[in-house]
Write the structure tokens for this entry.
Amino acid sequence: MLRWIRRLAVLAALLAACAALLAWWLLRGSLAPLDGELAVPGLAAPVSVERDSLGVVTIQAGSEADAMRVLGYVHAQERYFEMDLMRRNAAGELSELFGAVALDVDRQQRVHRMRARVDAHLDAFAGDRLPQLQAYTDGVNAGLGALSVRPWPYLLLRQAPRRWQVADSALAGYAMYFDLQDAQNLRELRLWKLRQHVPAALFGLLAHDGTQWDAPLFGVARGNAALPGPAQVDLRTLPVPDGDRPSRLADKGTPGSNNWAVAGALTADGRAIVADDMHLGLRAPNIWFRVRLRYPDSRAPDGRVDVSGFSLPGLPAVIVGSNGHVAWGFTNSYADTADWQPVRPCAAAGGPGCEPVVRHDETIRVAGADPVAFPVEETRFGPILHPADAQGTALALRWVAHQPGALNFGLADLAIASDLDDALAIAAGAATPAQNLVLADRGGRIAWRILGPLPVRDGRCPAPLQDAVSAPATDCAPWSISTTRSPVLADPENHRLWTANARVLDGEPLAVAGDGGYALGARAAQIRDGLLAKDRFDETDLLAIQLDDRAVFLRRWWQLLQDEAKGAPAGSALHGLAEAGATWQGRASVDSVSYRLVRAWRLAVHARIADGLAAPAQAALGDEFAMPDLPQLEGVAWPLLEQRPPHLLSRRYDSWSALLEDAAQEVRDELAGKGPLSERTWGERNTARICHPLANALPGFFRTRLCMPGAPLPGDGSMPRVQGPAFGASQRMVVSPGHEADGIVHMPGGQSGHPLSPFWGAGHDDWVEGRATPFLPGPARHTLTLAPAAPQ
């Protein structure tokens, strides 16, 4: 019996070893080849693909078409699964890959019918660049087909990858619309519901659109709110919601970016420099793919393109970077790009006083289950996202992204821009999600404008929701879109430009762009002040601003906590927080206790203030109430704490001191289980969780292998160095056109999506530590030659 047990144990071990070897062989089979020579159908001439020590790719081709074909080939071999996720997310097709667990996400996305819109208006996206898009698509499919084994995530999911189509590149672009704009227009809807149940003076506080921290390029700071008197509004006389505790405010990052530029007048040799870091959700591999493209083009300066920067797998273009003559970078503009249109739906034939509706029967395919029918009702304004209420009124969404021309391939032409004026002309016709574009050229000039389409409202429908809902329109034309509505700020007098998702505009231009929930201005102000603090800059100076983690904004909150604690009893939570955070390091550093405690306390105070101001709406709406995003609440909270008016104090508290103590108790109690408050550092809270999308589906050892190291991270959302556990600078770039060799770059998560690749996570440590990495690729470590395939 023992002999048989030993034999069975040996056999089990051999089977396990064979299974491990098979898994290893399958995993290695989907690695991208790095050296040698391979044949690729459709190439006109051989193309060189070099990779440096970080996996940064340089493609040298004899034509643009060959360069785009090979870029598609490389993207597919390194990132096909991630490309697939982007197109599926935009189209609402994730369930086909993941099964029923993704159905809710697909329903939320499919109501926008992005694949159908792309198919109907593919010419508006492709324009005259359809040949380049087709070459890229063919290259993607050739690269996918050349792998010995399908990419490893499909083995895990037991799925086969679906071939790429030209329309899928458009969907990859539309995925950024969903990432950067509010596809459900929730903020506007929540503000409208709030407005119906609070006095006008109270709504004016909640909707206050600026603070003393504003740092716009046009106009001046809005300043903090002027508080209404008790004759205008008195919370002590208004209804309050049920429940003992206020709900928390969301603690989330602000999608977008930082960027700025200095003109040649501020540098030693007349060079203009652009700095850009785009803030997005972080994953492994990173969303961007670093590349240098070199090929002849008669339209380019000197007849040749040499463009370096960050590409987006799925699109044949360098999204931000430099071409030796012009450098460019983006931040999300937070323009108002969506409106609700109240309608009274009726059949497509129409009738008096109603809005014709067309029904589209969408089908959501589900892995391992039957397809799910999903009807979508659309009006001429857009899809109905909220069905008819008791009065027969439904809400249709008018969103820029739904309109033909909302996305095109014009951005790719920045690769051939010769100077600032040329780049601005290209930008005027390019369509992306609305972005703050900052440009610099080789002559030392700089400029800003909004890149991408804005609504052309001009009094057309939809009207503001609060004005239109009582009388749904049946006789007005929906608004259109235009990429030429933005003002331009070129050659500013102070030779500096800066944006950071906060308000940039004022007056009529702001009315055109609108407020899509732009960010608190503290980060923009800190960047502006950093730029104004010096008269001479080089690339390292601008990197220092990108890495600035000084807690300028929170310092007064730390002082407030210390002052409040002086009058609090020894056992109070205020006293405990103040004592544990008595030393103010002045930074969001990983070892700072004071930063963590003060940050959490401020957020808890804000939640109680918002809860009090919104109390009448919460009482009226009950479970239907949802707090809108209030990014400018600081401009209300601070004057309230300075003046402490009883009539604007939440009825949950007897005094403002009691409110501040209750907020401190929440922070103390939440952290109590972790140990002494004096040991609760910011690094403990702000530890990296940057993982592959499939990491959570795997057991411990394998999950760890699919994540970047869990390093504590300095920085936060109210300062230039925006870093959270899984959110922050998806890239950093500092570059001067014509001086790319002096440029600096960072990228988290690495180039390759394969955990066995030498480029999985390559460069990530430099991003964590803030060590400068050269903007241009380094010496080639690997060279792959792709040659034309022999005719069949």
